[in-house]
Write a structure and sequence with these properties.
Length: 259
């Protein structure tokens, strides 16, 4: 998904998925755009890229790749991006799908493969990570090897101390899902918008959005098996959502590549 504005990147007017990890590299191909880092790590197979904000620059940067571009008509959440991709999913003969974000560049190819492998026993697999500080991440409430719910910070922050402490796994926002299950529950997602308040043109406005976490909740409620796996390194799921995170991602990339 590469549709969002990246509103916390105050000085960045373009699509943040095109931000470089190596901005000083003289060769543009060596600057390693966030989006290109992700696309290079995904398993082979048909790929749909959801676009909206700065879509032309995204399409220009990736035009040499075998991608299907899917326009999200309005920016209405991660679930809205999946709803926009429904026809592409229906028309593509691929039984296992990965849903990933365009600003999480360090997920390893092996991790994506593990997610897909988990679909041999589950309808959906959620990628989690275990940070030293949960901050304001959503968390996985689990029962053995299955996910019972994904709970956002605004809810779990009010849990009793002991219950909060037991929540170890945070949601990375990356999923693998069987095509049949995804298509079966998209109508439920489409019927379940949430009203959130966001700043638009300097004013707070109510906006209807759809969330993948609600898709997970619908599957669990219907008795579908939703599993999870965790990364060994929490840096693998580092998201680049503000200037500080971008600086940290660039520093990590340099360390890993000894530059």
């Amino acid at each position: 998904m590469a549709a969002g504005r990246g509103s916390r990147m105050k000085a960045q007017s373009g699509n943040k998925t095109l931000l470089p990890l190596m901005p000083e590299a003289p060769d543009p191909a060596q600057r390693r755009l966030l989006l290109m880092e992700i696309l290079d790590s995904l398993p082979p197979g048909p790929r749909g890229l959801v676009v909206h904000h700065g879509k032309q620059e995204v399409m220009t940067a990736t035009g040499h790749l075998p991608l299907t571009y899917i326009e999200q008509p309005v920016l209405n959440g991660t679930g809205g991006a999946i709803l926009a991709a429904a026809d592409f999913i229906r028309q593509t003969d691929c039984q296992r799908w990965i849903i990933t974000m365009g600003d999480v560049p360090f997920v390893r190819p092996a991790t994506y493969r593990r997610l897909v492998a988990g679909l041999a026993f589950s309808d959906m697999v959620v990628l989690g990570f275990c940070p030293a500080d949960k901050k304001q991440y959503g968390v996985l409430e689990i029962d053995g090897e299955t996910v019972r719910r994904i709970t956002e910070w605004k809810y779990w922050k009010d849990y009793p101390t002991e219950r909060r402490a037991a929540l170890k796994i945070c949601n990375a926002g990356i999923y693998a899902v069987r095509r049949e299950a995804l298509l079966a529950f998209l109508p439920t997602l489409a019927a379940s918008p949430q009203v959130v308040h966001k700043q638009v043109d300097g004013q707070m406005r109510p906006i209807e959005e759809y969330f993948i976490t609600d898709l997970v909740a619908a599957m669990v409620e219907a008795g579908r098996r939703v599993a999870y796996l965790t990364t060994e390194d929490e840096n693998e799921t580092m998201g680049v959502d503000d200037p500080e995170a971008l600086a940290a991602a660039r520093a990590l990339y340099r360390r890993r590549n000894r530059r």
